[in-house]
């Protein structure tokens, strides 16, 4: 069965949940960090499902791959920011968000590989 909408993609759904988790975590940051690391983490988190959606709506496989790779890059950015945030704001719980970003990276990697090599 062909997926017609980005909303049907499990990786997009998981990325949306991750973005919400990041908003919840960063809302607990002290006020001095709301325009620094918190803002950057939110931007990276929102970028993941946004790029998946934009890529899916594009008309060519190459465009789709380009945006999936951008989503993958944003996920790597967010993973780095989570690691930094854990050191700075160690009292917060990052377990679910950290696991989710790694799972999303794996899912994106599989999707990218499948689109690059559909017969493998």
């Amino acid at each position: 069965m062909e997926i017609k909408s980005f909303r049907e993609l499990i990786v997009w759904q998981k990325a949306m949940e991750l973005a919400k988790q990041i908003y919840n975590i960063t809302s607990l940051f002290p006020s001095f960090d709301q325009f620094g690391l918190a803002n950057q983490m939110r931007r990276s988190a929102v970028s993941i499902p946004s790029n998946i959606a934009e890529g899916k709506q594009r008309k060519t496989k190459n465009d789709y791959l380009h945006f999936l790779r951008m989503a993958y890059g944003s996920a790597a950015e967010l993973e780095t920011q989570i690691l930094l945030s854990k050191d700075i704001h160690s009292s917060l719980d990052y377990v679910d968000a950290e696991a989710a970003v790694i799972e999303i990276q794996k899912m994106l990697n599989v999707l990218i590989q499948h689109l690059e090599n559909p017969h493998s």
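The chain has one domain: 8-116. Residues 8-116 form a domain with the de novo design (two linked rop proteins) fold (CATH 1.20.1440.60).
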